[in-house]
Amino acid sequence: MGEARRQRILSTLYPLFALLCVATLILLFSLVGIFTRPPSLLAAFWPANAVLLGILLRYPRLASPPGWLGGLLGYLLASLFTEDPPLKTALLTLGNLAGVSVGYLLFRRLDHEDKRLRRPTSIVYLLLIAMAASFAAGLVGAAINPMLFQGSHLYGLGFWFASELVNYMAILPVILTLPPPGTLPGWRRLLYQTNISWSRLLPLLSLVGTLLLTLLIEGPGSIAFPVPALLWCAINYSVFATSLLSLSFSTLILLALSNGYLTISQDVQTQYWMFSVRIGVMLIALTPLTAASIMATRNNLLRRMEYLAHHDHLTGVLNRAGFWPGAEQMAEKLERGKHPLAVCMLDLDNFKPFNDKFGFRQGDRAILLFADTVKEETSKFKPFLGHIGGDDFFVGYQGTEEMPITDFETTLKAALKKYAQNAESFYSKDDRKAGFITAKDRFGIMRNFDLLAASCAAIVIGKDKKGITMEDIIYATAELKKSAKSSPEKYASLR
């Protein structure tokens, strides 16, 4: 089957897929709300609306007419399990879609980073949009509450607003921060920001313990018991993991309250008692999410600063500060390794007259071209590459059974040859034809210099060599560089 035909078939089938996928999800999450609600009352936990908004935002291809139609179909199918009359079903569905529509229109105005909650201010936007969407649903609730439940307009507004707000704030962060399917890491990396250890399970265990205390002790202050544990989790875990834990907390508390498993007041519950509780639960769940977002931003900045401190801004490879720790690690690997180590010092020949004649911008381009050429040609070996300074580079590679040192040396020689060929593009046609340029030497005397090339001095150290430091290696390569520059291959090695 041709690619064009396959794409046509996929484009034809995708609307059906979108409709069925969205309809199935909304049906399932509507049933969760239906089967967890108290008898003859509206659901205290209704995840379907937040799920619909989340998947439309997270997967824009689903935000199409078939996707919206799928959401409507899911609500209607779920009503079959409630045996509600058609008018009640239509009005409740209208309220559901009103909030989702407002939330979707407002979220579309945010940039990509805020949609993925990657900034601390993103949480503020999330709260404001969730409040607007909840208020839109609340307006429908205020209009239909006297008709369907013989209650007041104000109570309908408050009930719908509080219920929707809690659901949006608990569920949306999970969907919006969910890693892409193709890059989904293992559960350990998903949960932790660093390597797993049993000590890092303590925040999670403390959360479980405080939730149990909440259910056992009860009372007005019991729903705040998990707050320190939630903050502890936010400091140690990712935004996605924290959002999952906040969702678990909110769901457990709301279901326990609505079904009588948790009592926080012995007084007679007023109409607005549950409204107050839901807002309180939402604010508690918002706290760790905000802390996690701040920690994620901080950690990203620290990683960025560390990268900039140890990498050359021009070439992207390790700079002098990052070179030495890595070089020492290579020396340690040699001590306990089973294969020889190749240590190579590389630099550009005739770089100074080139830089003096054509300027620093062209000089930077020549250095960047060299770094890119070496990285590209030796990528399969994954060598240790550093830019020591000026036009000096360092490459280290420890051989393996599959890719021995000799293969690496052959590849490195090819990289040197390729660079010399590519570097000719920096010169004029006349310069390339002559094979040299005229420039001042270090004594200020005009003379001819060959075109840019690169040379390499390589020292191959066997596995039986012990006690060799990186300083010893660099000193030895300094003498070998003279032989490399005069070699036809621009390469000299010592074993």
Question: Which percent range fits the helix content?
Answer: 55-70%
The CATH architecture of the largest domain can be named as Orthogonal Bundle
The name of the CATH topology of the largest domain is Arp2/3 complex 21 kDa subunit ARPC3
Regions with little confidence, pLDDT below 50 for 5+ residues: none
Annotation, overall tally of beta strands: 7
Structural class by sheet pairing and helices: alpha+beta
Spatial extent as radius of gyration: 33 Å
Number of domains: 3
Biggest sheet details:
5 strands, mixed
Distance between the termini: 56 Å
Mean pLDDT, to the nearest integer, reads: 83
Q: Major sheet: order of its strands?
A: 2-3-1-6-7
Account of the 3D structure:
This protein is an alpha+beta fold and 495 residues long. It has 18 helices and 7 strands. Helix 4 runs antiparallel to helix 6.
Descriptive labels:
495 residues; alpha+beta; Arp2/3 complex 21 kDa subunit ARPC3; Alpha-Beta Plaits; 3 domains; two-stranded antiparallel sheet; elongated
